[in-house]
Amino acid sequence: MTKEWTPRIVAFFCNWCTYTAADLAGVSRLKYASNVRVIRLMCSGRVDPQFVLEALAKGADGVLIGGCHPGDCHYVEGNYKMLRRFELLKRLLADMGIEERRVRLEWISAAEGEKVKTVINEMTEQIKKLGPLGMPQKFETWDKEIEHLAVEVQARDAAQGPCPTRAAQLKPMEAVHA
User: Fold this and answer.
1) Dihedral sign, Cα of residue 108, residue 113, residue 116, residue 119
2) Does residue 50 contact residue 88 with C-beta atoms inside 8 Å?
3) Chain-wide mean pLDDT for the chain?
4) Cα dist. 48→24, 29, 60, 101, 140 in Å?
5) Would you say residue 123 has pLDDT above 60?
6) What are phi and psi of 174, to 5 degrees?
7) φ, ψ for residue 106, nearest 5 deg
8) Pick the residue with more confidence: 104 or 177?
9) Does the residue 44 lie in any domain?
10) Phi, psi of 140 (to 5 degrees)
11) pTM above 0.90, yes or no
12) In CATH, what number is assigned to the domain containing residue 55?
C-alpha cells in the first residue's frame, strides 16, 4: 500500500494577532489541516526572508506568514515591513524557479479563528495541486550538475594549457549546503 503525500507547510505567525487567532480556532474546535507547523514570532515584521528560504530548503513545501491587519500592528509598522520584504521575497523565489503560490502572506486578527482555518485549508489544497517542492533532493541534483560542470571546465582548461596567473588562482570546488 502506498502512502499518500501530504504537503508540509511552515507558518510564521504574529504573536498578537494570527497566533492568537490560531489558538482561538483550536479552542473553538475548528477543523483545519494538521500538516502546518506554526512558529510564533512577536511580529510579522520579524520574519526574515532567510527564514522562508531555510524552511523551503529543509523540506517545507510551502510557507504561510500571518500578521496583524495594516494599521493594527502592535509594533506600529511591523506588518508594513513584512509587506515590503514579501514583495522582494516573491521576486527572489521567481528567480529561483519556485512557484509564487508556495508562499502566502495573510492579515488575520486575533478574532478571526475561522479565517485561520480557511487560509490553512486553502493553502494545503493549493500546495497539493502544485505537488512536492523537494528542495533537499534538488540540492543533490544541482550538486551533481556543478560537479559535472567543474570536470568540463577543468578538462577545457587542461586542453588550453597552463596559465601561470590562473593556476595560482584556481582552487578545488566544494558544494556546501546547510
Assistant:
1) negative
2) no
3) 90
4) 26, 31, 16, 18, 26
5) yes
6) -130, 140
7) -135, 140
8) 104
9) yes
10) -60, -45
11) no
12) 3.40.50.960
Overall average pLDDT of the 2-12 stretch: 90
- Domain of 162, in residue numbers: 137-169
Q: Tens digits of per-residue pLDDT, 36-90? A: 999 999 999 999 999 999 999 999 999 999 999 999 999 999 999 999 999 999 9
Q: Where would I find the H helices in 59-134?
A: 78-96, 113-130
Q: Quick check: 136 pLDDT over 80?
A: no
Residues in the chain: 178
Helix 135-160 × helix 49-57 angle, to 10°: 90
b/e map of 34-71 (b: 16 or more CB within 10 Å)? ebbebeebebbbbbebebbbebbbeebbbbbbbbbeee
* pLDDT reported for residue 163: 65
CA gap 85, 50 in Å, rounded: 10
Distances (CA, A) of 146 to 116, 149, 150: 42, 5, 6
In a domain, 3, yes or no: no
Specify if 164 maps to a domain: yes
Do the beta carbons of residue 35 and residue 86 sit within 8 Å?
no
- If you average pLDDT over residues 97-125, what whole number do you get? 97
Q: Please state the domain count of the chain.
A: 2
